[in-house]
Design goal:
Two copies of one chain form a homodimer. With 238 residues, chain A is mostly helical. In chain A, 73% of the residues lie in helices and 3% in strands. The longest helix of chain A is centred in the C-terminal third of the chain and has 38 residues. Chain A is globular and about 60 Å long. β1 of chain A pairs antiparallel with β1 of chain B, so a sheet runs across the interface.
Chain lengths: 238, 238
């Protein structure tokens, strides 16, 4: 009596959504850069202008835990035409996630450095709590997957049992990253709209930040839909 | 070569997660009530104290679009022992979602009424944008499901094809509601921590709001895990 939608951890399916996801990934990267460079003054890890240190945080988090993570999740499908070896695509999947995780790590370092130098307290907001949980789960998930599927690698049966859990829990961690990016955009814009800056609520920068957040959200939805493969042919009706 | 995790729209599976979800649903309801009644002064739809009108918004949104929506999603499984008729459980599923949607509608009315009476602009924040999109998608999804599965009802084949999409897209709308609740808790707490109230960043109320948000988030994860049924026995390994 089960009616099923399927989350696939393997090849094939969702071709249209993969293209949509790539376009949204490029758009999200461009938009967060325009915001932080054009509207907020640029990026730096060392500067007398502490805001520039903060600015590296949203750029690296979006690039690492959302854009590269999305490309890593989709890499089995994206590369199926140009990279015929499944083993090579597995290394791309693993490598993109590792680079994404590293960029996310630097992005979190940047915001702690900004807080320290601008005398702002740490870890009081929901965004920071969920952020620490998300990057910790991301790192743990990567490590367990590396040990299970890459080196030293578990037995064939264990790998077979682990794959759907890997796909489902990996998507959940990715959804947390996408959701927490929403929290970050909202939190920063709320600060900018409060005194002393009092940024216009309907101005160009406010609209850019909200639309960047929406593009990140739609990217998350596209990745889930590209990964889900609805197949109802075998099941009974409701 | 597909490795699959399955989202089930039907009966059975995830028993432990269903119990966890019920407990988290009760906790989320109690916590948002303690926050809005004990810390924020109570609930009202008419009052000289406009904050009381606002307070009905988080309570009704959490109760409607998160707690009742979660119970509606899980109702096929929760009630499988005490309600033997599948048709009766379908009516409970439909009815709980209808009540959840109605409470959500009153919750959105409350926040617009608060804005009007307290002279606060509407629809500038990411929370409000995603909120309007979410309740619109929720209503559309409910209506399409009513027409397809209940009255007048589509053909057997159409219903069979529609069920996995109904389950997947329904879970996506639920995830949007859970994520947007996070945005709402963060936005309101950020306002309360700014001048003039300057609520303590690590005080009892701040911790309660953040933990309420986390309980809502964990409820969302529990519903997804209770609905997903990982079955890898038929599939090849990575």
């Amino acid at each position: 009596m089960a009616m099923k939608a399927v989350i696939k951890g393997g090849d094939g399916g969702g071709g249209c959504m993969v293209v949509v996801a790539h376009v949204l990934a490029v758009a999200a990267t461009a938009m967060v850069l325009v915001w932080c460079v054009h509207f907020r003054g640029g990026l730096a890890l060392r500067s007398h202008n502490k805001q520039l240190i903060f600015n590296t945080h949203p750029v690296l988090m979006v690039l690492g835990l959302v854009v590269l993570a999305a490309e890593a999740i989709l890499s089995y499908r994206s590369l199926s035409i140009i990279v015929s070896s499944r083993d090579a695509r597995k290394k791309v999947h693993l490598g993109l996630h590792a680079v994404g995780l590293a960029l996310g790590g630097v992005g979190i370092y940047a915001v702690f450095k900004y807080h320290a130098e601008a005398d702002i307290p740490n870890l009081y907001s929901l965004h920071s709590w969920i952020g620490i949980a998300t990057i910790s789960l991301y790192a743990l998930h990567w490590l367990l997957a590396f040990l299970t599927f890459f080196f030293p690698g578990a037995s064939h049966d264990t790998r077979r049992s682990a794959v759907p859990w890997h796909a489902l829990l990996g998507l959940l961690v990715f959804a947390l990253a996408v959701g927490n990016a929403q929290l970050g955009f909202l939190e920063k814009l709320t600060f900018l709209q409060a005194p002393p800056l009092r940024l216009s609520r309907y101005g160009a920068e406010a609209l850019l930040v909200n639309f960047t957040a929406l593009v990140v959200l739609l990217l998350g939805v596209a990745v889930v839909l590209a990964t889900a493969n609805v197949d109802s042919t075998k099941y009974t009706a409701m």
